[in-house]
Each structure stands twice: as structure tokens, then as C-alpha cells.
């Protein structure tokens, strides 16, 4: 696969620049069985800085199951996932620091405000919380005026926008997104497309699922 220029991101496996690895996410011979059913077998692909994968397939094909394997939340029956050449089973902590996973459930604290949620995530992610930057990010995703409302008062689409704001503040190298376009209006779809394009341009890696046609030429397609 093509490597798109110099990556902005470096993998956080070490603090020493001399030992930084070339960014990649690679799947080798991955099998997935759920219940009695073989969902996919002997899956191979590799992604480098600035590349992405759009995983498609009918309901129940195994898209979410694949994403969970890529995050390390579940272990494969056989095969492995490597981050910058190292199995994620061996480098789970450093891998976790480099990955942002957005699943079906929004994982927001309903009783905290939008701003407080981002502050909470910054603490969990071990990054410095900057109020001005965070407010600018909320504004970018049309949440100005909603910053201090409890998340329980936000609509489903507004919660998704809040998660997009998190994507900009978290600065993870690898984004793994399960149906990120679901529930978005046309404006939010454009905001998300731009955000994904930015991530790829900065040398990040994206794996996402969804049934939409996406206008991102850097995304390859995997049909399960
Ligand atoms: N923990 C589990 N135990 C047993 N079967 C499971 C488990 N998790 C998922 N499955 C089954 O695995 C199959 C794939 O599920 P998965 O959620 O990966 O599909 P999907 O492609 O993401 O579907 P959708 O488009 O509906 O979100 C389904 O048939 C599902 O019932």
C-alpha cells in the first residue's frame, strides 16, 4: 500500500526518537468465530501513515467483531494484529495510548456537561486539558452554547458531535470507528468527512465501518 508522505504522528511505544517505529497497523491471518459461526478467516491487510480502511458488509457480517479485535478488546482465535511491527498482545499499554475507539455506545457520562466530559477524557487519556482549545473544538462541531449542558440534554447527533470534538483533542494516531456516520445530519457528515481527511493528511490511520459511500480516496475497502 502507498505511504502518504511524512507522518505527523509517531508511535508512542517509546519516548526516544531514535527508537521510534514506522507507523503501521497490520493484520496477519486473522480468524474470527462468534458462537458457532466463522465470520472471517485468514484476513490480511496492512495500513501505513495516511491510509485508511472502510470495512463494509451486511448486518452480522462481523464488522464490529473485527474492530474489537483491532482494538485488542477481544483476542483472535488465530492470527495477530501488529502495531508498528509489534503484536498488540505484547504492547497493549502503548497501543492503547495510540488508539481512539468509537463504538456503538457513545460512552459519555450523561450527568456531566459536554465540557466536563472532555475534561474527564483528557484525564483518562493522560493529556493536558486546555479549556480554550476544547471550547474552540466544541464550536467547530456546532456545540457552542451547549458546553455547559449535561450530556443527557443533548440530542443523539449532538452527542456524536461531542465525540468528534474528542477526536480532535485526543490526538490519537489510530482511529477505529464503528459506524461513525450513523445519526448525523448533512452538516455533521461534512464535518466528519473533513475531520477524517485531516487525520489522514496528518499521517494517522483510520479503520471505520459504515454503509455510506465515502468521498475519501485514501480509504481502501474491505468487504466482509
Ligand atoms: N459475544 C458474542 N457471542 C456470540 N455471537 C456473537 C457475539 N458477538 C457477536 N456475535 C455474532 O457475530 C455476528 C457478527 O456480529 P457483528 O456485531 O460483528 O456484526 P456487524 O457486521 O458489525 O453487524 P451490524 O452491521 O449489524 O452492526 C452476529 O451474528 C452476532 O450475533
Description:
The chain is of the alpha/beta class. The chain has a single domain (24-223), classed as Rossmann fold (3-Layer(aba) Sandwich), CATH 3.40.50. 31% of the residues lie in helices and 24% in strands. It is built from 6 helices and 9 strands. The strands form 2 sheets. Strands 6-7-8-3-9 form a 5-stranded parallel beta sheet, sandwiched between helices. A 4-stranded antiparallel beta sheet has the order 2-1-4-5, with helices on one face. β4 (78-83) and β5 form a beta hairpin. α3 packs parallel to α5 and α4 (131-140) crosses α5. The longest helix is centred in the last third of the chain and has 16 residues, at 186-201. It is globular. It starts with 23 loop residues before the first strand and ends with a strand. Adenosine-5'-triphosphate is lined by residues 34-35, 39, 57, 59-65. Keywords: ATP-binding, Cell inner membrane, Cell membrane, Cytochrome c-type biogenesis, Membrane, Nucleotide-binding, Translocase, Transport. One of its GO terms (molecular function) is ATP binding. One of its GO terms (biological process) is cytochrome complex assembly. Residues 25-222 form the ABC transporter domain. It comes from Polynucleobacter meluiroseus.
Amino acid at each position: 500500500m502507498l505511504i502518504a508522505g511524512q507522518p505527523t504522528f509517531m508511535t508512542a511505544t517509546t519516548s526516544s526518537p531514535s527508537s521510534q517505529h514506522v507507523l503501521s497497523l497490520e493484520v496477519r491471518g486473522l480468524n474470527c468465530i462468534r458462537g458457532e459461526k466463522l465470520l472471517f478467516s485468514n484476513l490480511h491487510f496492512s495500513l501505513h501513515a495516511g491510509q485508511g480502511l472502510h470495512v463494509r458488509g451486511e448486518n452480522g457480517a462481523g464488522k464490529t467483531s473485527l474492530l474489537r479485535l483491532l482494538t485488542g478488546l477481544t483476542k483472535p482465535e488465530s492470527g495477530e494484529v501488529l502495531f508498528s511491527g509489534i503484536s498488540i498482545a505484547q504492547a497493549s499499554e502503548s497501543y492503547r495510548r495510540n488508539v481512539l475507539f468509537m463504538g456503538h455506545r457513545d460512552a459519555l457520562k450523561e450527568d456531566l456537561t459536554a465540557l466536563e466530559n472532555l475534561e474527564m477524557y483528557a484525564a483518562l487519556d493522560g493529556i493536558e486539558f486546555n479549556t480554550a482549545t476544547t471550547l474552540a473544538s466544541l464550536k467547530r462541531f456546532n456545540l457552542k452554547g451547549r458546553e455547559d449542558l449535561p450530556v443527557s440534554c443533548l440530542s443523539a447527533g449532538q452527542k456524536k458531535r461531542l465525540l468528534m470534538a474528542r477526536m480532535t483533542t485526543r490526538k490519537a494516531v489510530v482511529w477505529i470507528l464503528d459506524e461513525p456516520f450513523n445519526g448525523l445530519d448533512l452538516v455533521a457528515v461534512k464535518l466528519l468527512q473533513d475531520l477524517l481527511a485531516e487525520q489522514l493528511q496528518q499521517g494517522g490511520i483510520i479503520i471505520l465501518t459504515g454503509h455510506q459511500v465515502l468521498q475519501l480516496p485514501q480509504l481502501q475497502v474491505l468487504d466482509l
